[in-house]
Amino acid sequence: MITTKGQKTAAVLATMVGATTLATMGTTEQASANSTTMNVEGVYKVDNLVQYMGKWYVVTNPIAIPTVDYNNWIPVDPLTVTDANGKRHANQTLKKGSYYTFSNKNYQVRYNQGENLSLTMDGEPVWFKKSALSGSVGKPTSKPSENNNNNNNGSQGQNVNNVNVRQSGINGYYNGGYSYPALQCTGFIAQILADRGINPAQFQFLGNGEAWARNAQARGISVSMTPRVGSVVSFKAQGWYAGYGHVGYITAVNNDGSFQMAEGNFAGKPYNERTVWVNNDVAGIIHF
Questions:
Q1: 3-class secondary structure for the chain?
Q2: What is the rounded CA–CA span in Å between residue 203 and residue 212?
Q3: Predicted confidence band at 2 (pLDDT cuts at 50, 70, 90)?
Q4: Which segments show compositional bias classed as Low complexity (predicted)?
Q5: Measured between alpha carbons, how far is 149 from 170 in angstroms, rounded to an integer?
Q6: pLDDT at residue 67 is higher than 50
Q7: Which domains are assigned to the chain?
Q8: Strand-pair category, 232-235 with 93-94
Q9: Could you read off the pLDDT of 210-259 as tens digits, one per residue?
Q10: Residues linked to residue 180 through DSSP beta bridges, in sequence order
Q11: Higher pLDDT, 122 or 17
Q12: Which of 32, 124, 162, 183 sits between 20 and 30 A of 108, alpha carbons compared?
């Protein structure tokens, strides 16, 4: 058994089975695709508890969507231990079979489209299946985000300045996910994009780094040779990038036309930053 105030760290893949949802809540329509925060209502049951490197997570299926990384675990810290009717327990100790709520707290919306909802909880992305929540997303509590849209002509989802690029990238580098293996530049970028709330269908299965620009463009995603903050640069399989090419995440654009880039697996490092110019090595710049 554990308390709801656990240590801070990262997590990895979990396979989740069987869940009990114990309350009927608001309608899915209450969750505007443009809202920046919302709450999750209702009482849920702990099917299992998992621990990774000192931090505890709750498994309650099928409310969270199983993916190839740790997004299907719910961090314990934001939860409140209750009885089956949602009344708060004095003893905030969780164990298998306990009941809990999401503490009536508002969580930042990373992605909200169709069946899928992703919220930031305890600093981590958690994906939910709306139908498994019985339509249970609360009313949006803040004004619409101007960056959360469905076009492919610029940054989409969470404001790029609100994403911890370094931490997201390192998580992706070590864990892999979204069709990409661990310890590669592609997994590094994929996790950053996921944490921004971009639909995984846009960046999954784009191939090696050198193929990202070509394959993204084939999907109708805007690709150019103009660097923008939050865009992804794809490098050809030549020179430093011979073999498989490379991808990097643009964090700043300089007045001289160069840009700053965050990347994984450059010289074997999990995280690296450097200044780059658009030249013949660049296959294209992708504006997710």
A1: CEECCCCCCCCCCCCCCCCCECCCCCCHHHCCCCCCEECCCCCEECCEEEEECCEEEEECCCCECCCCCHHHCEECCCCEEECCCCCECCCCEECCCCEEECCCCCEEEEEEECCEEEEEECCEEEEEEHHHHCCCCCCCCCCCCCCCCCCCCCCCCCCHHHCCHHHHHHHHHHHCECCECCCCHHHHHHHHHHHCCCCHHHHCCCCCHHHHHHHHHHCCCEEECCCCCCCEEEECCCHHHCCCCEEEEEEEECCCCCEEEEECCECCECCEEEEECCCCCEEEEEEC
A2: 8
A3: low
A4: 145-162
A5: 27
A6: no
A7: 2-133 (no CATH), 160-287 (3.90.1720.10)
A8: unpaired
A9: 999 999 999 999 999 999 999 999 999 988 788 899 999 999 999 888 99
A10: 177
A11: 122
A12: 183
Using a pLDDT cut of 90, give the percent of the chain over it: 38
Amino acid code (one letter) for 90: A
Q: How far separated are the first and last CA of the chain, in Å rounded?
A: 42
The residues, any chain, with a CB within 8 Å of residue 114's CB and separated by 6 or more, are: none
**CA 214 from centre of chain:** 24
Q: Hunting for tokens 């490197």 — which residue is that? A: 53
